[in-house]
Amino acid sequence: MTEQKSQKKAKPARRWRWRPSRRGFLIGTGILAGGLALGVPIGLPILRREVAGFFDSGALPSNYPTDPALWFTVTADNRVRLILPKMEMGQGIHTALGQIAADELSIAWEQLEVMAAGTNEGPVDAFGTFGSTSVASSWEPLRQAAATLREMLRAEGATQLGVAPMAVTVAEGMVFVTAESARRRTFGDIIVDADAERWQTPEEPAPLLSDNALRFVGRSLPRVDIPLKVTGQADYGYDMRVPGMRYGAVLKPIQLAATLDSVDTSEAARSPGVQQIVVDGDFVGVVADTRWHAWQARNRIDAHWKAPRLWTQAQIDETVSVGGRGGITIQVEGDGSSPLRSGDVFSAEYRTPCAFHATLEPQAALADVRTDSATIWTSTQGPHVIRGAIAAALELKPEQVEVIPTYLGAGLGCKIDSKAAIEAARLSQAVGAPVHVGWNRAEEMRNGYLRPPTHHRLRARLDDAGRIEVMEHLQASGQVAFGFIPDVMAAVLGADFGAWRGAMIQYAIPHRHVRTWVRTLPLDTGWWRGLGLLANTFALESFMDEMAAVAGADPLAFRLDHLPSGDKGRRFRAVLEAVAEQANWRGILPSGHAQGIAVSEDVDTIVAQVAEVSMNEGGQLRVHRVDAVMDCGRVINPDGAVAQVQGAVMLGVGSALLEEAQVADGKLVSANFDRYPLLTLADAPYVEVGLLEAGDGKPRGVGEPPIGPVAAAIANGLATATGKRVRQMPFTPERVT
Amino acid sequence: MPNDSIYFEEAQLNLLINDEQFQVDDAEPNRPLLWVLRDELGLTGTRFGCGVGICGACTVHVDGVALRTCITPLAAVVDRPIRTIEGLADGDNLHPVQQAFIDLQAPQCGWCMSGQIMTAAALLAQNPSPTAEEIHIGMDRNYCRCGCYARIYAAVEKAAQGQA
What we know:
The complex is a heterodimer of chains A (737) and B (164).
Chain A: E1 2-3, H1 31-38, E2 39-41, H2 68-71, E3 72-75, E4 80-84, H3 93-105, E5 112-116, H4 134-161, E6 168-171, E7 174-177, E8 180-186, H5 187-192, H6 226-230, E9 246-250, E10 259-264, H7 266-269, E11 274-280, E12 283-288, H8 291-299, E13 302-306, H9 313-319, E14 328-333, E15 346-352, E16 364-369, E17 374-378, H10 383-394, E18 401-405, H11 419-431, E19 435-438, H12 441-446, E20 454-462, E21 468-478, H13 487-493, E22 511-519, H14 533-551, H15 555-560, H16 566-583, E23 594-602, E24 605-615, E25 621-631, H17 638-657, E26 663-664, E27 667-668, E28 686-692, H18 710-722, H19 733-736
Parallel strand pairs in A: 1-5, 4-5, 9-19, 17-18, 21-22, 25-28
Antiparallel strand pairs in A: 2-3, 3-4, 6-7, 7-8, 9-12, 10-13, 11-12, 14-22, 15-20, 16-17, 16-19, 20-21, 23-24, 24-25, 26-27
Chain B: H1 4-7, E1 12-17, E2 20-25, H2 33-40, E3 59-62, E4 65-68, E5 81-83, H3 96-103, H4 113-126, H5 132-138, H6 149-163
Parallel strand pairs in B: 1-5
Antiparallel strand pairs in B: 1-2, 3-4, 3-5
């Protein structure tokens, strides 16, 4: 199988002498166009593209279309192109979904090509590539679509071979007469000769293959996008180029909630390479011949801003604190928190800071806006979301806007931001030429949105047997989902489902109460890998360890003693026991090292981790090793799942040890990595990953769940190693000594 | 120098990139090499990450040494051999580091990978048999936001063993 680049760019000619007036690189021709010319749409006539309405309810996607015409194109040279509504941002989704499709199609792996669906092709995915839902939500509809296509090819192939459908076998992209295998037709042959009257998608769903017939699902096939990524050929939003394009940059405030007071662009207009200054109210941009010139010119804009107040970090923390009006109870079991009115109540408070996504590819888009249409190339987790935003910004109808997605230089939740695409579109509209906008690091940090800060207050009481009888979790957070959904929906929901992800108490505690507050901040906060999962698990699982200490119990045994009954409890037990064995829990460690354990559940995937940590005399914390065991149900590509766990652990370690976006003097302190260092290779722990399967054959999410336990496992290990309980992320030397 | 452009309107600077000659405008000779590669020559495999020489996504080789193009003025590399990710493979034969990154399935999003691979290739060119410590130090200044560090390390180690 190969990865089909959505748009192919011509390489510079050999010995090519560059001239400003003859820009020689372009996209839009090349492999793809040639391939499509050979392609025969498999639905004849082309079937309607159904727009699933799953996003209207705010629910997760569950009803992707199963019509193969939307997913597949079969070409005359017997290749099958799979058009995927899920974006590849490094999570390996194109490979995993390719494996699912290739199995049901009964084709050879090499026959398959995958490509990301733009807004004008493929299944419509208004939800976007989010929430660790891609495999779980595509598994059944994609299999069904592929099986239906296989059975259509079987029937049409049998007819063309002059035998009954029962007399043929489908394998390796061919239909052959079972008793006489030399009589065969490839899928490509069949499509070319298909009779338009006969070639109709059947009403009845085709039967799916049995598990033992699956040849690709469950295997660690190499990722299809990696060859392009080690040769520099993979194209991202930042790399998109078309003939005649220019580069744009838009003025932005540095201070929080600032508005433009006055602006003088006269010096910027004289800056080298500037072609046009675009001023439309408080939208001030420059368009130049190169990005460097556009940025230089923007630096020469003399702008004055008005900030309503100079926010401090203390004010941010105070805003995001539990208590007061607006709290929403999201979980009550037994008598809730009422039993906490008496007895020895133990309590603790935890905080997590704002954090950047810091994807190494900043927001970027190329826009070509014409009188009544717009084409946008961008690295996005949600092409349909970007289409809606562009249509609104340009006052076009959504169907007049085409969004062509590219590879993403990581997503982590930030690449649904439409601001760079809107900037490119507005500049393109103003100058009448294609304009590319790629943010610099300062824009990416100060003008996108962040992981919100959180505050947690936990209270609990033990019963006479040393088990937790009652537990309460009060949680406050900046917005996660609420910045992205209509106000009316937020008002109905009350609690921000993104912020409280992972906040509920899973343990079998007789009386439980969880209440959340969502706060509005002067900076934008939103989606970040796992949403509230990392913060909430940090608080809940740190507190679980603190209660184990109060009870004088081993943290692992204490958790096992509080597991719910039934299948969920069985799965929790399995991952906890497996990770304890894998990590040699309570085994002999080097001097000064200690282990901490934590577990979390997210999108019905359960992950337990053991972190081995130590601290030097300067308070420098080191994470030596993280053992992770994940039960995500059926695993499509084991090595891909392992890679996701490894990556999530690294992001969690960076968050636990380093990452904190602070506010001072009314602005975010960090505008680049000098004030916001990321985890590097030398400080990366060894990560060992074990995979368990739930046993019901259904795949579950993988991308986000493994970030849940990381910070708590580290904090718990630190407490064992040093006796010091750290309740605020990140665990910097001044907080741990 | 500024007056040169008056007398020689077509004045150009020579760049030797991936064994090919390129000529670019000599006005503003201090503009960063990164944007010359990406926007003027279309060599977008060299990526932008930070613009201040921290993240390493923009790493290329100049005279065989890893260099961060976002903070390298164009004038500093005129007539010196530059190699970018597009020119690392020998025709269809991938460089051992590229092959090792495939074998270990090291990349995730891939945006940092041109820089990781160019850094690793330069490291192995100078030190064909690095110790674990030397790999840690040599690869410690390239950010990977997807957290592929364990596989990056393993890939560099494998490439070194393959060369030895």
